[in-house]
Amino acid sequence: MKRLLIIPALLIAICSIVACGGDEDAAVQPTNPFSSTEDNPGNDKPAQPADTTDTSTAKKVVQRKAGFDPCFFNFGAAWQAAHEDEVNYKGLDYVAVWLGDNDWYNEFEKRMVEMCVNIKATPMIYAYVIAEFGKDQGLVDCDMKDEEHPNTLCNAGANIIRAYFADSILYRYEQYASGMRDQLKVFLEQDPDTFETIWLIEPDYYQYSESASQQKAEFDGDAQEGGGIPDAELGFYFSQIVGVIKKYLPAAKIAIDISPWISDWKGISQAAWYANFDMSLVDYASTSGGGTFAGGEKVRAGNKATWKEIYEATGKPILADAGYDRGGAGTGHAQIWDNVANINARAAEYVVGVMQMDASLDYPSIVESIRPQLQVNYPWCAEQGAK
Fold first, then answer.
1. CA 10 to chain CA mean position, Å
2. What is the residue-averaged pLDDT of the chain?
3. Considering the domain boundaries, does residue 32 fall inside one?
4. In a domain, 302, yes or no
5. How far is CA 316 from its chain centroid?
6. Closest to 70 measured CA to CA, from 155, 204, 196
7. Radius of gyration of the chain (CA)
């Protein structure tokens, strides 16, 4: 977070993926810590008598399940209005959509979930509700601040939570989760009590905290008005959000956000931040958008946090993002995350999947050629036997 991946003989003759370097290894300039921008030999022992051991309790080879499977490395793509055809996603393990900018569960998300059912992919929800509600009140992302937009989620987001959490923010979560339940049960003939989804709770959640407010004040003087939300209180709000989702979708998997810049500040550690949360509610840790560093041990090249550090602090498998630029602008398909050596190295550091924000239309074919070359040995699957 080493087991050999057993590959059928008919799949061995697969060409290697061309390594894609990009410019991630160039010298890194200091970055705004609150910006969303951004790689068995044979032996000669004598033959032994046939093993007559009862194998009824022996470890079995793990078969990959349809959709997202944490015992294997997973590949996902963001749901795009420009290309909704199933052929652009079939063969991927999950499809992701950003949710939060409406008071209801809308048709765009419904079409994505329906397609996921059809192609047996897992729906992944970037639950960006607090931020989107804040934008409805005139706020902008922290890295979009300018003279015309002085009020950001980094200086007014905490007050949004104070004023609107119970009657507006939780309300939106309830609308989304209940709406998805109804769609699954009534229109898609799926059991909503067992149907798996993955919910990435509040990207950049740390930015609303008192620790983040102090860190931001030291960085550029732009702190939360009235102070940030106490760190432990944000843990309580997180549990309430999870409770609403699980009320309607009991099989939902929950991912907690990763803020790599926490490791850049002396005032708090990754472990201390996650200690504010009931981690028994959490299944994954997620970079929740932005760019991540496929080619090395750091989550992002401009911050100190490493993949291993995040796993040690959370104890959870990691979901990585291929990313996008300021304001959600696309950056194109991140080929560095198609490099087999990079993926194997990150899998050894507990990364269990990557989501391409702007996936190439032939991404399913790319993934098909990558899979047979991967070797993963996740500790949370050790008891299930070698793959």
1. 33
2. 86
3. no
4. yes
5. 11
6. 196
7. 22
